Automatic annotation (TrEMBL):
Organism: Treponema berlinense
GO CC, any one term: cytosol
Protein name: Shikimate kinase
Subcellular location: Cytoplasm
Protein biosynthesis in keyword set: no
Cofactor note (record): Binds 1 Mg(2+) ion per subunit.
Main localisation: cytoplasm
């Protein structure tokens, strides 16, 4: 891709886990007739491991490296799409992992190729979605938790909610500081939230 203008044609969706990134990426892909990508999927394609497995085995730095590699791969794929879709306003949409806001190198790459859209989810809604996925083994230990909560070793659902609250507040500040657009996700039909994203994008044109 040549020039800064052409480097801004990807809609990059960001936000905490369960804010609706993957769902909205699919909606926007269908609406704009453009391909949809997911950095977590790209990580798996490149490594054969899920983000959670990489985080567990290699730690935070190992995961950040994998996430950066996924963003490099995304940029490469967009360059190929750009060669045939140069006339389109947007050439792709990409959903990112919930913790990508703490990966400065990945954010730099994404800011070069796209418009960073922060999907601002209500804390209670996001927390309920995380709690819904929690499982308890025969010894009463909680598992199937996001890595950033699991490392806090929560013993109860109340602990999970408390840990999530701290991360929610922290990540809200970071995402607001790095995004180009902030869209409040409503407790409404998914198509209504899609329309809010599209409306916010139109205001940047």
């Amino acid at each position: 891709m040549q020039g800064n203008k052409s480097m801004k044609k990807c809609i990059v969706l960001m936000g905490i886990k369960h804010c609706g990134k993957s769902t909205q990426a699919n909606f926007l892909s269908e609406y704009f007739k453009i391909p949809s990508f997911d950095t977590d999927d790209l990580i798996f394609e490149l490594t054969g491991k899920t983000p959670r497995q990489i985080y567990t085995e290699l730690g935070e730095e190992g995961f950040k490296n994998a996430e950066k590699s996924a963003c490099i791969e995304l940029k490469s794929r967009l360059e190929k799409i750009q060669q045939t879709e140069n006339s389109k306003k947007y050439i792709a949409v990409a959903a990112t992992g919930g913790g990508i806001c703490n990966n400065a190198e990945a954010i730099k790459l994404l800011s070069e190729i796209g418009i960073l859209v922060f999907l601002n989810a209500d804390e209670r809604t996001a927390a309920n979605r995380i709690v819904k996925e929690v499982k308890i083994d025969v010894d009463g230990k909680l598992f199937n938790l996001p890595a950033y909560i699991a490392k806090e070793n929560p013993r109860t659902i109340s602990d999970v909610r408390e840990s999530f609250h701290k991360f929610y507040v922290e990540r809200q500040k970071i995402y607001r500081s790095i995004c180009n657009i902030c869209v409040d996700m409503k407790n409404a039909p998914k198509s209504e939230n899609r329309d809010s994203i599209i409306e916010s994008l139109s205001k940047t044109e």
